[in-house]
């Protein structure tokens, strides 16, 4: 069965002005859709069709760069839509305790996420990851993914220009500030932490 473009879990207007409906129309409706379509086309008629998307990413890593990029980006964007929230949230007790252990405070985590995201050269992703009970901030370049890496991704932010250029032009730090202050879904992060295993792309 082919992978599907998962619907946005909120109204595309709901994160404006940090992320506008126009950005979602391109980012979800065109970019994410193209990654899904190209992944499906590459797998069509092969014995890899129907595998969980995470397994496709793992199999393509290091062996098929085009499939790795497209399957990784398919997964990353699904995870990113869920990492975002219309309204500001705060971490629940277990997640908050892990954040304090690793970063000292929730404010310090937000500062570090902003710095790492702003400092990342060119396209990629910044992630909050749990490994062996320890939280850390990680970065991947281009279409590289945390779908098949060691550790449990809790949240991600897209650092590609297509994620913010219509709304913030070149000012990636402004996009990061608005998203990190007001639009990260800490309930999604807490669910991922509690499950203790990597989120699965729906389907
Ligand atoms: Mn993107």
Total domains, how many? 2
CATH class of the largest domain: Alpha Beta
Distinct ligands: manganese (II) ion
Contiguous helical run count: 8
Structural class: mainly alpha
CATH architecture of the largest domain: 3-Layer(bab) Sandwich
Supply Rg.
16 Å
Annotated CATH homologous superfamily of the largest domain: Iron/manganese superoxide dismutase, C-terminal domain
Question: What is the name of the CATH topology of the largest domain?
Answer: minor pseudopilin epsh fold
Order of strands, widest sheet: 2-1-3
**What is the mean pLDDT?**
97
The parts where pLDDT drops under 50 for at least 5 residues are none
* Portion in beta strands: 5-15%
Number of strands: 3
The geometry reads as globular
Order of helices and strands: HHHHHEEEHHH
Helix content bin: 40-55%
Largest sheet: 3 strands, antiparallel
Can you put this structure into words, describing what you see?
This protein is mainly α and 203 residues long. It folds into 2 domains: 21-83, Helix Hairpins, CATH 1.10.287.990; 93-195, Iron/manganese superoxide dismutase, C-terminal domain (minor pseudopilin epsh fold, 3-Layer(bab) Sandwich), CATH 3.55.40.20. 49% of the residues lie in helices and 11% in strands. The protein is built from 8 helices and 3 strands; from the N terminus they run H-H-H-H-H-E-E-E-H-H-H. It has helices spanning 21-43, 53-60, 65-83, 93-103, 106-119, 165-168, 172-182, 186-195, and strands at residues 124-131, 134-141, 152-158. It has a 3-stranded antiparallel beta sheet. Helix 1 (21-43) runs antiparallel to helix 3 and helix 2 crosses helix 3 (65-83). The N and C termini lie close together (9 Å). The model has no long low-confidence stretch (mean pLDDT 97). The structure holds manganese (II) ion (MN). Manganese (II) ion is lined by residues 27, 31, 77, 158, 160, 162-163.
């Amino acid at each position: 069965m082919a992978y599907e473009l998962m619907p946005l879990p909120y109204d595309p207007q709901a994160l404006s002005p940090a992320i506008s409906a126009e950005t979602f129309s391109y980012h979800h409706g065109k970019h994410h859709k193209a990654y899904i379509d190209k992944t499906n086309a590459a797998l069509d008629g092969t014995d890899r069709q129907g595998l969980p998307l995470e397994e496709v990413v793992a199999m393509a890593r290091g062996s098929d760069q085009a499939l790795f990029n497209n399957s990784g980006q398919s997964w990353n964007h699904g995870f990113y839509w869920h990492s975002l929230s219309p309204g500001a949230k705060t971490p629940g007790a277990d997640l908050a305790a892990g954040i304090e252990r690793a970063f000292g405070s929730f404010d310090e985590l937000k500062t570090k996420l902003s710095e790492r995201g702003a400092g990342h050269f060119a396209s990629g992703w910044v992630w909050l990851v749990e490994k062996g009970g320890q939280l850390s901030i990680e970065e991947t370049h281009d279409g590289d993914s945390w779908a098949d890496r060691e550790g449990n991704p809790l949240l991600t932010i897209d650092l590609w220009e297509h994620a913010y250029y219509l709304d913030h032009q070149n000012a990636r730090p402004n996009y990061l500030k608005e998203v990190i202050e007001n639009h990260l879904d800490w309930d999604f992060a807490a669910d991922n932490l509690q499950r203790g295993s990597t989120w699965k792309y729906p389907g």
